[in-house]
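May I ask for whichever protein you like with its backbone structure tokens?
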Amino acid sequence: MKEIETGINLDHIFDLRKKFTIIGLTGKTGSGCSEVSSLMTKGFKNESFTNPKEFFRESRGKSFHNAHRSHRICYNYAQKNFNSFAEIKYKDVITLFILHEPIDYLINYLKDDCRNDFLASSFPSPDFSEQIKDIQKLSSDFSMYSKVLKKNNLLNIKKDYNYTELHNLFFNKNFNDFSQNLHNALGKGNTDKALNYHKLLQIITNNLRKTGKTFESKLINFDHVFTIVEFVNYIIKSHRKENHYTQVVINSLKNPMEIMFFKQRYSAFYAIAVNTDPESLKMTLHSKFGGKDELTERLILSEYKGDNDKDFHCQKVEECLQLADIHISFFEQKDVDNKNEETRKLGIKYNPCFTWQDQLLKYLTLIDHPGLVQPSSEERCMQLAYTAKLNSGCISRQVGATITDSDYSVKAIGWNNTPSGQVPCSLRNADDLLNNINDNKSFTIYEQTESNRENSDFQKVLKENYEKKVITNYQLLKGRNVSYCFKTLKNSYSEGKNQVHTRSLHAEENAFLQLTKYGGTGIQNGILFSTASTCELCSKKAYQLGIKLIYYIDPYPGISKSQILSIGEKPIETRLFTGAIGNAYFRLFQPFMAYKDELSLILGHNIKDVVTQLNEENKILKEKIKEFEEKNK
């Protein structure tokens, strides 16, 4: 009887992924980060994800989609491999920084000192009198944890390497409960309390990145920008030293430099953006903040864009979304059913949507085991747009776009850039313009004329912001090219914020024009993918060309949907993109080895084609003949 060959355990090959993974969640307030983080801490629970049998049951008499087959593969794998994640709540980290000072510091800040910080952010002066009473009830626990923090010098852990003490404190349920009680005291209650609490956290985190101190906002120092995430990194290290595996989710990161910190630090770090469509988010925030929409909008705008372009320390969710490796759309089951029905009505090749839980399951599986399933059509097309955006010479923001037909066959790719034959802004130097160096016509007749016209507004702004400041900050430039944005300069003294003065074509516009320029086919009922989202001008072009569906990553802060896309006889459906893009696209979908080889090693089989079998048998036969001849010489 032939002996059955034993397979090989390949766990060691995947140990690096399984034993060390850091997930950083990002997204707007109310987008669903807390729900995603909470699910990850529970590990695999059957009731959390859609059982593939449900898809089979629903598809009786219909075609079973490949996306459902992919889900079944991920579901079956996760049942055996999905370990729970340890959660690092950003607000718990802030609690440790608050504890570093006596409780009186917090109370005095809430009584008076915070007012100037609120007003500086264009927010009404707060009244924290009720919150102070609730905080005072926690004074005993506050003092106890403050002593533990200082006794073990935990905020200066790099000096003493007290990882065990840090781990025992931060991941202790009693501390977690105290931290929650402290934050409840700061924000629980009426609408004003909730709004003031969220603004207070914004201010405190900005202070720590700006000055390194919880309640200090004036001594700005770029050296402190990583104050919070460096400490988060120590918490991760403490977990790694105390556990045989480390899978950590950070809830949540809202500063782009903090995301870049982890991207540079860990190859096993993934930034996951949790997105909610604008209408649903608006309803969530309306409910959360009791209908105070004007103040809520101000709060969210500050979180989304920061208070100023130069404020490196601020929350800037807009930039965080652009840095995300994976995008999850916060779809509940009812949303999924609606989206799937809309796709069928649009006449576009059906690619089913999934709930946010099932989306998460796919990417956690791929982080553990790259290449287990393939990219979706949407991911493939958005990845092309994401790659294309790197061609952009715009110094403000790079955007890419892909246009496909209704079967996701690519027809055009575009990126925001100057018209073909003109020099992009990134390659122009303001010093050349000021010194009348116009190599290969880098600068327009208008720019040359205005920069040489004595005391013109253009010349004044150019000299003030480039000539003088380049001289002053020459050492800091360290050889950087001094590009300048014509639109920003022109708008600073003329019409205000006028998009007409941008030198670049938009990415979508560039893709549309390619179809005309190179004689491409029409795109009636086609699909548009944008790494941002379409503005009013590009929306009109998309409508005119017959686009039926637009996938986007970040909503354009305009009125394109309500004013253009959603009206008329052929409204355009807009949809948040779900999937992996950028470097993560390759890291998640590129397998460690050919899957056939992987299965062969595990199962221990050795299936050979007939020719190979005959050759081996022939080789054995020849050896036997040779032996026989040797014996009978």
The chain is about 55% helix and 10% strand. The chain has a mean pLDDT of 89.
